[in-house]
Amino acid sequence: MSENDAGASPTSTAEEDADSSSPKIPISWPTDGFLTREWIDDLTAAFDWSSRNLHPTELPSVLPFDVLQRLVLTASNILHREPNCLQIDPPSADGGAAVGGSIVVVGDVHGQLHDVLFLLRDSGYPSEDRIFVFNGDYVDRGAWGLETFLLLLAWKVFLPHRVFLLRGNHESKYCTSVYGFEKEVMTKYGNQGPHVYRKCLRCFEGLPLASIIANCVYTAHGGLFRSVSVVPSKRSKGKKGRKIKSSIDTCSLRLGSLEELSRARRNVLDPPWEGPNLIPGDVLWSDPSSTMGLSLNVERGIGLLWGPDCTENFLSKYHLKVIIRSHEGPDARDKRQFLKGIQDGYTIDHEVESGQLITLFSAPDYPQFQATEDRYNNRGAYIVLHPPDFATPEFHVFEAIKPRPQVNPYYDFEVAIDSDEELDLDSMDHSSAASV
């Protein structure tokens, strides 16, 4: 295992952008309906320029509503056809043997557009021989969640078999209503904002939950999950047509299987913390622990805590070498003193006989808006997996792009709960997105 570019300090191009002419705007949808690399480059330049030179309410002059709608719908159709757990094979240009390319894994980015643009340049853009796996939390807290999410959707549409977007816990109705994304969309698209927001929620529902990379690396936003034993109750006599209710065996927690993960219903606005469909909530909200065994994640109110023994059991059962999860930034780790901090964008939380568990966080100087002068000032990181076995993570650590363009937050960051703790679970919506 190696660490490359540790502490790399990217320089902002804000001065250059301010002096350059505006990019090709407005962005229009290709006449043939097929995205190209040039189209994505134009979209990237337009988002970067507009973030520095235009008021947020002017975004529709850059990306008109009808173009946004086509992009989100096209991406959503692709995402909803993918399985809960993606099987990602090593890069191959012709469908045959691997061609020696790499696989890049990215953690939380939280609407920090300029850091995402740096990461893409630094790692090398997605291509036929470079696969990207994004591990969720594209929106909220940062001021450019919409642009970040749309740009990644464009890459997905352009290279659907080389770019994979997993769901994070913030890709939900509840989190986006608390941590800024909903207000961001309404601010940027005005009267059309509610329609844009519903389209995004529908797209969130289609994001896969996990991936297996090269048969040796499991990735998911939160991590592991429980086995859900559904016990059918007896049908009430004399009431024809009554649905059979089911109850969950919560007396004993045990690790779930990939087969159970594949059967889970992921198309819910807010993954439930109770009932028969617990696996999505576990995958998105769970955290590792230094204590052996499985337990309920009482601090968050949803998901699990799992120990090194569970990591070992999961790796050995499926002949895997590495688990890569995200979900915890420096604010979260500050409250969990029994685990390492995440100031360098990653930690190795469990080292066991079969392999290791890694937490990966790709949003440097997070969160963008902080209530104290003493900022976390963490670095971000991404992982590159190389052939032939793709089982030895190579860490690339980087600093935040500064200065960031001046912009107002879209949520009350001084009162919003850090680390998604003490959630108002009763206000969550566990249904599918309604008419979009």
Automatic annotation (TrEMBL):
Gene Ontology molecular function, alphabetical: metal ion binding; protein serine/threonine phosphatase activity
Which top EC class is named for this enzyme in its record?
Answer: hydrolase
| Keywords, alphabetical | Hydrolase, Manganese, Metal-binding
From the UniProt record, list the reaction(s) this protein catalyses: O-phospho-L-threonyl-[protein] + H2O = L-threonyl-[protein] + phosphate
Return the EC number.
Answer: 3.1.3.16
Polar residues: compositionally biased ranges: 1-13
- In residue numbers, the region (Disordered) covers 1-27
Names of the cofactor(s): Mn(2+)
Q: Which InterPro entries match?
A: Calcineurin-like_PHP, Metallo-depent_PP-like, PPP_phosphatase, Ser/Thr-sp_prot-phosphatase
Q: Which domain of life is it from?
A: Eukaryota
Q: Which residue intervals define the domain Serine/threonine specific protein phosphatases in the entry?
A: 166-171
Q: Which family does it belong to?
A: Belongs to the PPP phosphatase family.
Q: What is this protein called?
A: Serine/threonine-protein phosphatase
Source organism of the structure: Vanilla planifolia
